[in-house]
Every structure is written in structure tokens, then in C-alpha cells.
Design brief:
Blueprint: H1 3-18, H2 22-39, H3 41-59, H4 61-67, H5 69-91, H6 102-106, H7 110-122, H8 125-134, H9 145-176, H10 181-204
């Protein structure tokens, strides 16, 4: 991949990372509930999910999922169920300001946050189809595909690290100003509704003919 092609892809990475979606909702939700330092571990999971998607596309399983109606449906509905479950959990979260709930937040381990982020991006056929549609446009089929996929993975990971940090710290800063339980309840239910809406949106996503 030459520099000019990579530069175009790098610009696309920023657009992909900045676009609102389940990943951005997850980052803000984690910042809301756990603050920046702990909540940012969700971003590492989101990136692992992206890398999983790239691996699937790179070895051809992504194409198989995109081509198989049954495989696509299974992965899609797993993703829908996961997002709706996250929404319900967020909706039912206790209405406690972050400054008063450090002990509760500590009960959610960093590993759990990473796994949560990974699940959001890994079980998402929309991401697989998107990568199948976009990534091949930047590949040089006469050069090493492995090295090109590594560049693609590193570029997507870098932009997500930066963008999701912004989403996480924004939510954490907003949360620090919210003291009243009804404010926290409103925020929890707003993010819960966004997760459920993301699941509903994914349910409407159809495989290209």
C-alpha cells in the first residue's frame, strides 16, 4: 500500500470512527458509569472486536458470512440480542453519581469491560460487510496482503483509540457534574435506549443481494 492510498484510507478511518454507532455508545456509557480511567478499557475491547472482524475478512470467513443467508442471520441476531441486553442492563443501572459509586464501579472488572467492547464490535455482521465493501478498494493485489492488512488494522486501531477516548472522557466529564439521582437515572435510561435502538437498527440491516 503506497503512501497516497494509505492517506486516503486513513482519512476514511477517521470518518468510520467518528460516525455514531454502537461503539461510540459503548464508550460513552463506560465513561458515564466508570469514569475515564476505567471506562477506557471498553475501547480496548472495541479495537479487539475490529481486529477480529479484519481477521475474519482477511481469511475469507467474512465473505462466507456475507454470502450465507443462515450464517449472516445467526451472527446478526446474536448482535441484536447482545445490544438489547446491554440496553436493558444500562436502563436498570442504579441511579448513583459516579463520585459516590466507586465501590460499585470497581465490581466491574477491566476484563469485563474489554470483553463487553469486544462483543459489540466482533458480533456485528454490518461491520463485516462494511469491511468487505471498503477494504478491497485500498488493497494492492500484487503486493503482500498480510502487510497491507496489518497497516489497515493499525490505522483503524489508532483512530479508534483517539476517537473513543474523546467519547469516553466527554461522558465522564458530563457525569462528574451530575449529582442528583434523577439526572443519573435519565442518563442511564438514555444510554440504555440508545443501545436498544442500535440493536433495532441492526435488526433492519439486510445482506446485499
Amino acid at each position: 500500500m503506497n503512501f497516497h492510498v494509505w492517506l486516503a484510507f486513513f482519512a476514511a478511518c477517521w470518518a468510520i470512527s467518528l460516525s455514531p454507532g454502537a461503539g461510540a455508545i459503548a464508550a460513552m456509557s463506560s465513561g458515564l458509569n466508570h469514569g475515564f480511567r476505567r471506562g477506557y478499557f471498553t475501547t480496548f475491547g472495541l479495537i479487539l472486536g475490529i481486529l477480529t472482524q479484519i481477521l475474519l475478512v482477511g481469511i475469507g470467513l467474512g465473505a462466507l458470512i456475507a454470502a450465507s443467508s443462515l450464517g449472516f442471520a445467526i451472527v446478526k441476531w446474536l448482535g441484536v440480542a447482545y445490544l438489547v441486553w446491554l440496553g436493558i442492563q444500562q436502563w436498570r443501572a442504579p441511579a448513583k453519581p459516579m463520585m459516590a459509586s466507586n465501590a460499585d464501579a470497581a465490581q466491574v472488572t477491566r476484563r469485563q469491560l474489554v470483553l463487553r467492547g469486544w462483543g459489540i464490535n466482533a458480533v456485528n455482521p454490518k461491520g463485516t460487510v462494511f469491511l468487505l465493501a471498503v477494504v478491497p478498494q485500498f488493497l494492492d493485489l500484487h503486493a503482500s496482503l498480510t502487510s497491507q492488512y496489518l497497516v489497515i488494522a493499525a490505522s483503524l486501531a489508532f483512530t479508534d483509540l483517539v476517537v473513543m477516548a474523546g467519547y469516553t472522557v466527554l461522558a465522564a466529564r458530563v457525569l462528574s457534574a451530575l449529582r442528583e439521582p434523577h439526572h443519573i437515572k435519565l442518563m442511564n435510561r438514555s444510554f440504555g435506549s440508545l443501545f436498544i435502538a442500535a440493536g433495532a437498527l441492526l435488526a433492519t440491516f439486510k445482506r446485499s443481494a
